[in-house]
Design brief:
This protein has 303 residues and is an alpha/beta fold. The chain contains twelve helices and eleven strands. The protein has a six-stranded parallel β-sheet with strand order 1-11-8-7-5-6. The chain has a three-stranded parallel β-sheet with strand order 3-2-4, sandwiched between helices. It has a two-stranded antiparallel ribbon with strand order 9-10. Strand 2, helix 2 and strand 3 form a beta-alpha-beta unit. The radius of gyration is 20 Å and the shape is globular. It starts with a strand and ends with a helix. The relative contact order is 0.16. Bound molecules: NADP nicotinamide-adenine-dinucleotide phosphate. The site of NADP nicotinamide-adenine-dinucleotide phosphate has 26 residues, from loops.
Length: 303
């Protein structure tokens, strides 16, 4: 039986660690979230971030400029937040409207307030293994591996996906944990054969249930970053071909969440895995809270 790696437990442990650190600060940490436009998924993410702040005693502020914002106007908002001493973290929710230069916006955030860890200065700190905020989802996965005492050193980790927010920082963090790391992407030849070498397999490609039995080494630890909502019954029937209970759940709700790995095949082949939902998903906001607390600690000590 594969071990299920419960992200909710790890999230709770991270949040628990935040509480006394917040209490020890001379003032509450402050997080500013810039949410441009009315993208429904982004609105849900931001609402969850604000809720997590409120529960921990982190002050949060949401700025909601319209969809029509220009790059210059967004940069002005960021500059204003940079200058405010009570704001420790600034987050610009992605995606941004097409007319806005997202890279420019991320570059404008002061590195010391970049709680997403996306600024090139913080990416440099990651690569050279210096202190600094780490990209939240990959940092959460490292926390999960430690929580469950899963050995990483010397093992072959295969990361599928090379995005700046997940794949690349994940690979770097695993390297710092002394894994031997392979990064795969859409041009990788014979992806299945490469994935089958992974003692640890991280799926972050954004393709529902794409990595099935053919891609998983028996006994591997599988960490699934993917979050895909399936609303097409044929697709759901293909994925859950041997799981009538799952299909019944689909029929009741009209949709189902799946990761980037095949849920039934993973459960059969892995020694341990993160389920979707309930695996990697809960970790991201918890690490965002931790990054905000750490930023406040660094900034309060400066004064
Ligand atoms: P992304 O920016 O779209 O990057 C996807 C990566 O996967 C790219 O590097 C791409 O390769 C690669 N890829 C795409 N199709 C592939 C294929 N058929 N074979 C091999 N590689 C392929 O996605 P992302 O932002 O990293 O997110 C990945 C997944 O994680 C998504 O499902 C997203 O919803 C989820 N996510 C979850 C959380 C969380 O909190 N749990 C956080 C962030 C993201 P190329 O570079 O060659 O195009």
């Amino acid at each position: 039986m594969a071990r299920i790696l419960d992200g909710g437990r790890v999230r709770d442990a991270i949040l628990q660690e935040c509480r006394p650190r917040i209490a020890a600060l001379p003032r509450p940490p402050g997080l500013a979230v810039v949410l441009v436009g009315r993208d429904p998924a982004s609105e849900i993410y931001v609402r969850n971030k604000v809720k997590a702040c409120a529960e921990l005693g982190i002050l949060s502020e949401t700025i909601t400029p319209p969809d029509s914002i220009t790059t210059a106007e967004l940069l002005e908002i960021v500059r204003e937040l940079n200058s405010r001493p009570e704001i420790d973290g600034i987050l610009v929710q992605m995606p941004l409207p097409a007319q806005v230069d997202a890279r420019q916006a991320l570059l404008e955030i002061l590195p010391e307030k970049d709680v997403d860890g996306f600024h090139p200065c913080n990416v440099g700190a990651l690569v050279t293994n210096r202190p600094g905020p780490r990209s939240c989802t990959p940092a959460g996965i490292i926390r999960l591996l430690r929580y469950y005492e899963i050995p990483v050193a010397g093992r072959h980790a295969v990361v599928v996906g090379r995005s700046d927010i997940v794949g690349k920082p994940m690979a770097m963090l695993l390297l710092h944990e002394n894994a031997t790391v392979t990064i795969c992407h859409s041009k990788t030849r014979d992806l299945a054969a490469v994935c089958r070498q992974g003692d640890i397999l991280v799926a972050a490609l954004g393709r529902p249930a794409a990595l099935d039995a053919e891609y998983i080494k028996p006994g591997a630890v599988v960490l699934d970053v993917g979050i895909n909502r399936i609303a097409d019954r044929e697709e759901a029937a293909r994925i859950f071909r041997n799981a009538p209970a799952k299909l019944e759940a689909f029929d009741r709700k009209g949709n189902v969440l799946v990761g980037d790995t095949h849920p039934l095949d993973v459960a059969e082949m892995a020694s341990a895995y993160t389920p979707v939902p309930g695996g990697v998903g809960p970790l991201t906001i918890a690490v965002l809270m931790l990054n905000t607390v750490e930023s406040a600690e660094r900034r309060c000590r400066l004064r």
